[in-house]
Amino acid sequence: MEPSLQIIDVGRVRLRVALAGEGPLVVLVHGFPEGWYSWRHQIAALAKAGYRVAAPDVRGYGGSDKPHAIEAYAIKELAADIAVLIAALGADRAIVVGHDWGAPIAYGTALFHPERVRGVAGLSAPHTGRGSAPSIELYRKTYKDRFFYQLYFQEPGWPRPSWRPMCGEACVSSTTGSRAKGRKQIPRSKIRRDQGGSTATSTRIDCRPG
């Protein structure tokens, strides 16, 4: 079953949403770096099982609006998008399922808008509650001068197409961590950007398990 794609206004942004099926509403929230398409198999299966499925491109991704302000991507803003989407689709409540970075959005929707959520599921990213310090502070202490993609994102203005020379290596190694057998962490000092904004690594890293 091929979903239909619609642009739905949720207030401050418009979201591109894949829709399929009829029945109780299930909202699928993708992770990084993905879009609604990562749910294509689940959309078909859930629609066949008797559910109405909505899989949005989260704000900032794919065919959805991309606000410039950093504050526009606060978890309360992302959760509000899902809550308003549920209402815009004519449902009182929905089951919200999040994968990867989508999981905190699912948890946040249930936390801040419990009246809109009848069930929540998180895939690959468990709910850990509020930490002892902001996550970015903990990452800086943990990774120090080593590359970690979430720290990389803290410096605005670097063009994302510049990942091409490095993403298959550094991104994989940063997300699996140095404890994975046969994988290495790439130091941040090994990453450089030329005047045109492209990114390269000064050494090649084998990220395959060995």
Could you give a quick summary of the protein structure above?
This protein is of the alpha/beta class. 27% of the residues lie in helices and 20% in strands.
Describe the model.
With 210 residues, the chain is an alpha/beta fold. It folds into 2 domains: 4-123, Alpha/Beta hydrolase fold, catalytic domain (Rossmann fold, 3-Layer(aba) Sandwich), CATH 3.40.50.1820; 135-201, no CATH class. It has helices spanning 40-48, 75-88, 102-112, 135-143, 149-152, 167-176; strands spanning 4-9, 14-20, 25-29, 52-56, 94-99, 117-123, 191-193, 199-201. Helix 2 packs across helix 3. The protein is globular and about 50 Å long.
Structural features:
210 residues, alpha/beta, Rossmann fold, six-stranded mixed β-sheet, two-stranded antiparallel sheet, 6 helices
Q: Biggest sheet, strands in spatial order?
A: 1-2-4-3-5-6
Count the beta strands: 8
Spans of at least 5 consecutive residues whose pLDDT stays below 50 are 166-183, 191-210
Can you tell me the CATH superfamily of the largest domain?
Answer: Alpha/Beta hydrolase fold, catalytic domain
Q: Average the pLDDT over all residues and give the rounded result.
A: 82
Rounded to the nearest angstrom, the radius of gyration is 19 Å
